[in-house]
Fold these 4 entries.
Entry 1:
Amino acid sequence: MRILVTEDEPRILWFVTRALEAEGFLADGAEDGAQALELARREHYDLVVLDLLLPRLDGLSVLRELRHDNPELPVVILSARSDLSTKLRGFDLGANDYVQKPFALDELIARIRAHLRRRRSDEGEERMLQAGRLVLDLGRRRARLGAVVVDLTQREFRLLLQLAEHCGEVVSRERLLAEVWGYHFDPGSNVVDVCVRRVRKKFGHDAPIETVRSVGYRLAE
């Protein structure tokens, strides 16, 4: 497994890459966003560890380009930025995880291993989940409703998966935000509603997601 670590602080870059190599990974380092993007486009990586405050090209811009080039590549953000809006922006752009500095090295490596295991599992077998009229392709990140088949973003897929796993039950906005975006509920955030609207638009008028007013959403049985 080969990992790209992007970090503008040389001491942290050295520390993380050496630790990954000690765990048996191949690790390359990049000290700025432009270099990271160049490496990612030239070499094959199984996962990227990405800082946000980078020279030449900021981390969120790098993430946007990585997602455009390779939607399936796992990206773990490692950043000192702790504000909710930045975290949500990172997840909206397709980050798989967000680790805040200062960080525990053992936890970072454990999260990396978990994402690599998940990717191998998704690539190695075709898995389907049926909930009511909806069928989710867990490996290809697609959903089928009757004759309609739609491709989903990572966030859209995880939202539908949460609803499918609790088909017929009301899932609160708080729970969806915590499970899909990884954060406690922010009363001022409308990211859940925006994501639901995008999913409904993809399915058209037959979309199976029901709104339970002032509570959350439910996947129709």
Note: The longest helix spans residues 105-124.
Entry 2:
Amino acid sequence: MNSSVREKGSIVLNSQDQVRFETLVLPHLDAAFNLARWLLRSGADAEDASQEAMLRAYRFFDGFHGGDVRAWLLQIVRNTCFTWLKKNRQVKDTTEFDEELHGPPGPTPESLAIETDGRERLTHALESLPSRYREVIVLRELEGCSYKEIAAITSIPVGTVMSRVSRARHQLQLALADPAQGGHS
């Protein structure tokens, strides 16, 4: 039995699935925005991407048959963000930093001023991480996802998730211990 009805090109869930969607998915809206914010590095872009992801989740909710709804939604958010990045950002933003090719940047007066506040230092340190490390550390430490959930969201093996989280923590430690290095060793 199909739980959704197509009306003029759009999907409308039946009332039972509408309530189920609102009960299961909407409580994770903040987590969706938070992940989008860290992946896209922009509040405005994150609003657009998380809204698009929620529309996709709504559109395909009849295909959700149980399991971890937060992991399901965050996977949609992640995929939406990466699609958005491919369409809207230059290649340099999606190219990962290679520590062996690039030396650490010299601190600017602006970056030193930003780093004086602990929260701003943490934000700066998180933003300095390569995207593959930033996404796993945000999912693990800010969203409280298990390694298994992160593996499902990112479609990578649990061992790789654990390794990336460990490396991300190490890079964060370095960035916070020596802010003049900008997080690169």
Note: The CA atoms of residues 97 and 106 lie 16 Å apart.
Entry 3:
Amino acid sequence: MDPLGVVSDAQARAGETLELASRYLDPSLVEVLRILGFDKAYRSASGSYLYDGDGRAYLDMHSGEGFASLGHGHPDVRAVLQAMLDTDLVDGVQLHYSVLAGMLAEALAARLPEGLEATFFASTRR
């Protein structure tokens, strides 16, 4: 089910990943990846590992997103994401408030020091 063709386009253009990142995202990071030898063409990810086209596994030590602690494609996370999509719950934090945004902000506030109870979600390019 890919009525917009996004999945098929992404699969067809997977070989352009670093070129696209260098042109439209962050060329300096792509250069660092090349210098470190991390400019691999990963074909899949599962748990804590990335896999290249030859099936070689690489332990993913990146710590910036949820997969760092939960693993790539964690079945519980996938199930919750699918369940949320299936609910047709109105979501978004720019023009209106979302119950999900409120729940996330509440959970963050519970973990922050006293006096830090408000969250501002933002999107940035850099």
Note: The beta strands are 42-46, 49-52, 57-59.
Entry 4:
Amino acid sequence: MRVAMLAPISWRVPPRHYGPWERVVSLLTEGLVERGVDVTLFATADSVTQAQLEAVVPRPLEEDPTLDPNVWEPLHIANAFENAGRFDLIHNHFDYVPLTYSRLVTTPVVTTVHGFSSDRIKPVYRRYAGRVAYVSISNADRDPNLPYIATVYHGIDLSEFTPREQPGRGLVYFGRIHPDKGVAEAIAVADAVGLPLAIAGIVHDHEYFEREIAPHLDGDLVRYVGSLGAADRNELLGSALALLHLVEFAEPFGLSMIEAMACGTPVIARRRGSVPEVVDEGVTGFVVDDVAGATLAVGRVGALDRRAVRARVAERFSRDRMVDDYMQVYEQVLSGARIA
């Protein structure tokens, strides 16, 4: 099987720190190569992979402001589709724009929908629904007006996360600093229970950071530690009592939740979007409805078996399981199936 993997180009594959879509692409690509699949990765030129790398974009767009997305994004997409005849299948992780190329080639196209940035882009998905096989990353993130061939939950490389049987004392927030992600709510919970909070992630909304987050930073009870690479991520998540994921939007999946769980760290998350699918209530954490519920849950997480948290993630969210699921999707598509 020859697969063209079309990655985003905001960040390198794999990302140096932030870049959830790019991280999933990297894990899937390397897992497929290890299974003997002939994969060509279309990504930035500085990407690192065992697959064959095809690149026209020299560096990640988020790391080089001199690169105009209006120029490099179409060049990147076109490079993959101009080479479509070399492949049995194109797997698109670049959102909706590549769909508009899909009828210009005969090669089957699979698109993983990593969440809808806006309802305004959905007409593109609807227009190409008969041509492209869509994969959702959670059942909650499915649009009722679109057909899907499967739901494939993200998987992670468990070897990157060290299980810790003893809980730490502090709480952690890990993700983009944005109102949607519930950072201010995490601070409110930490303040209510009198525990320290470490905040990690890129600042996506600078006004929100300055208004809602910065005034609480004291370097002790509330710390901002920036955007972390793999080793520091492992240390921070593993040393926490719990991860707070009090999102204010319908979470499409939530990689940080399973990354924390892989360290044995339970998750306290708001009941939005995929959260009830990802968090096993009373096993890997608690699903709550508000700050008050999260505050009460902090007092309960210490009783959870961190070994069971890690075991459940290994069962449900490993890289190997994700690769298995996508191999099944590819086989269905190549056999002519479109809708699950």
Note: The two ends are 22 Å apart (CA to CA).
